[in-house]
Design a protein that fits this description.
The chain is of the alpha+beta class and 667 residues long. 15% of the residues are buried.
Length: 667
């Protein structure tokens, strides 16, 4: 609510507050203090209650039969719970009233109380709903109080929901925009103006007596497959060329980046569209660039490679191979001298030294160095080692030849790990303190270098984990392949002729519309599946009700049921006329069905009497209905009763360019 301080600060200018209550919308749970009210609510039981089937009305009314006992009980409970929820709305309005009294702004405030639509509960066998063109769905309560509004007065003129916005603007001292269809109702309420019904000695104010009631989807004409709808217009070719050449991208002589087309005026003065020609040197550079890219990896690093065949010959190579593949006289290559002998030896580099591994020996793998440079030895490469030194090189401390062991692991050039997980080094390390110290320093240096390398590898591994690409699924089209296809389409589109490009754009919009419509149908289908197959009928709008729907008293304990209350093609346009002589409803449905009800003799619209109306009058009603459907602004959308002065000073419907929309009705 608005505080008194803020009210004092803002009273220098008009303010507006809108309160939209959830009641009496579903699930119709009232406040606990109101759960015992209206035990015998029966306002919904009217002469049209459970009046079904109605074979003289449109097809949904013909399809709907009398309600079952569970449906009738539901309508009784629903009416009671809806009235209970409105008691909370009454409390809200009372608090608002007292707030205006406390702030001394009650006599300076207009309060409008209304709703957006009516409601039917059991009428014509329809359990509940709001989508029919009859009075119980189109009439709403409308109460107003404020300055110059006489308490208890009743205005007989037709007031619509489209009149709310112009009325609010009029209260604020603003003019109604010409594109608004409604009119301000203050002229009907002010006692000082001649439009008030209580001033009988004044001239009656001109006001509407007919309005349009419409509901449903916008009807689209189905596309015929034989027709080509690509062209957006049917202008001659030279006119289309002239229109295209007015665009800036076609006026420069192929100077813009990515420009594919240009407009050129020929000798006769006609404009023609020519494709831009690329110079020979630029074309050669592009070819070389393409050849370089084709030899390396793909430029799209994110693209999934799902093809098993990695290598494919170029176009030139395939062209050169064709004569040999097609000519059967050419003798095919037969390898006669193929090297099938097993490899005898293998050269391996380890610790900066190259070793020859003899593969013919089955048990012993003796490593023979080609050029050995001792790092810690006492002799150079030119010196001949003594017999004792040669014999000690391959011998460990305990006299075991570690080099000859088949499964020994050489860790350094002087130490090994044997198959029994024992470590043995050369005798030199165990006998010489200097050799031991040098070899240990060498090992510490190697460990330090390896630790730095491990640290760097871990950083790289963490980086790769953070930048892991999406996994490729070759069974379905990936995002990158879709992106590649879109780029290819854009590239293909850039080479199209401008006329074909425009036609393709129209086709793209049509495809997009069809795709959106398909998705909408899928959503509706999933919604029907959630409700259950037993309450999902094609073409009908149905609902289910069970014991869990209402969470406050009075509760529902009669079980679940299904009811269909409307249809997908329930689209209609109606004329509703109320004046001193006539009170009728005329409707045209999208299916071509017509309905007419005379409220003076049939106030509950029980019987459709369209067959009793003359054809000429039906044509006149149809013309007026089409005029109201196409009107724009309150000067056109407010037809006047017959016999009153025409003109458009006060928002009448007469337009010298259109003729008078309402010529009266004579039955």
């Amino acid at each position: 609510m608005v505080s008194k301080r803020s009210m004092d600060l803002n009273m220098q200018r008009p303010i507006m507050m809108v309160i939209s209550h959830a009641a009496p919308h579903g699930p119709e749970d009232s406040a606990p203090q109101f759960s015992e009210f209206y035990p015998n609510a029966s306002q919904h039981i009217t002469p049209s209650y459970n009046y079904a089937p109605n074979m003289d009305k449109h097809w949904i009314m013909q399809y709907t039969g009398p309600m079952l006992p569970i449906h009738m009980e539901f309508t009784n409970v629903l009416q009671r719970k809806r009235l209970q929820t409105l008691l909370s709305v009454d409390d809200s309005m009372e608090r608002l009233y007292h707030m205006l009294v406390e702030t001394r702004e009650l006599e300076n405030t207009y309060i409008i109380y209304t709703a957006d639509h009516g409601y039917h509960i059991g009428q014509f066998g329809l359990v509940k709903g709001k989508s029919m063109p009859y009075d119980f769905d189109i009439r709403v309560p409308f109460f107003i109080r404020g300055p110059s509004v006489e308490p208890g007065s009743v205005v007989s003129q037709l007031v619509l929901n489209i009149d709310l916005a112009p009325t609010v603007l009029d209260i604020a001292g603003l003019d109604t925009p010409p594109d608004m269809d409604g009119k301000s109702i203050l002229k009907l309420l002010d006692l000082e103006k001649p439009g008030n019904r209580f001033r009988t000695n004044k001239k009656t104010k001109v006001w509407r007596d007919t309005f349009l009631v419409e509901r449903g989807k916008f009807l689209r004409k189905k596309e015929e497959p034989t027709k080509n709808v690509q062209q957006s217009n049917h202008l001659p070719k030279y006119e289309r060329v002239k229109e295209l050449c007015q665009q800036a991208r076609y006026q420069t002589p192929c100077e813009q980046q990515g420009q594919k087309w240009q407009c050129i005026e020929d000798t006769s003065g006609k404009l023609r569209i020519h494709k831009c020609k690329v110079p020979g040197d630029i074309l050669a550079i592009r070819k070389r660039t393409r050849s370089v890219h084709s030899q390396g990896y793909s430029s799209n690093e994110n693209e999934c490679d799902c093809d098993e065949s990695v290598y494919r010959n170029s176009r030139t190579q395939r062209k050169n191979q064709r004569p040999f593949l097609r000519n059967p006289s050419v003798q095919k290559y037969k390898p006669r001298f193929v090297h099938t002998r097993h490899t005898r030896s293998l050269s391996v580099e380890f610790e900066g030294e190259i070793y020859d591994v003899n593969l013919e020996e089955e048990e012993l793998h003796v490593l023979q160095p080609k050029s050995i440079v001792k790092r810690h030895g006492s002799y150079s490469e030119e010196e001949e080692p003594s017999e004792d030194t040669t014999g000690d090189e391959g011998m460990l401390a305990d006299g075991i030849n570690a080099v000859g062991q088949p499964n020994s692991v050489r860790v350094t050039h002087k130490c090994f790990i044997l198959p029994n997980d024992s470590i043995h080094c050369e005798r030199e390390l165990y006998q010489s303190a200097r050799a031991w110290k040098d070899h240990k320093a060498y090992i510490d240096k190697e460990i330090e270098a390896l630790q730095d390398k491990i640290k760097n590898l871990r950083e790289v591994r963490g980086h790769l984990k953070r930048r892991k690409p999406d996994e490729c699924d070759c069974s379905k089209k990936s995002y990158y392949s879709k992106e590649k296809g879109v780029k290819a389409q854009e590239k293909h589109k850039s080479h199209l002729h401008p006329f074909k490009e425009a036609a393709q754009e129209v086709d793209g919009k049509l495809q997009l519309f069809k795709e959106n419509r398909r998705r909408k149908k899928e959503r509706k289908s999933k919604k029907r599946q959630k409700k259950g197959d037993e309450c999902s009928l094609p073409g009908l709008t149905c609902f289910t009700h069970d014991n869990n729907h209402w969470q406050t008293a009075p509760f529902w304990n009669l079980g679940s049921f299904c009811a269909c209350t409307s249809s997908n093609n329930n689209t209609y346009w109606c004329l509703r006329t109320v004046n001193e002589t006539h009170n009728f409803l005329f409707c045209e449905f999208a299916t071509g069905f017509l309905e007419y009800f005379d409220m003076n003799t049939d106030p509950y619209q029980l019987t459709n009497t369209v067959h009793t109306i003359e054809r000429g009058i039906l044509n006149q009603l149809h013309i007026q209905l089409m005029e109201l459907r196409s009107c724009q602004g309150y000067k056109q959308c407010n037809p006047r009763p017959k016999g009153l002065n025409t003109g458009n000073k006060d928002g009448g419907s007469y337009d010298p360019h259109r003729g008078q929309l309402w010529h009266g009705w004579e039955g």
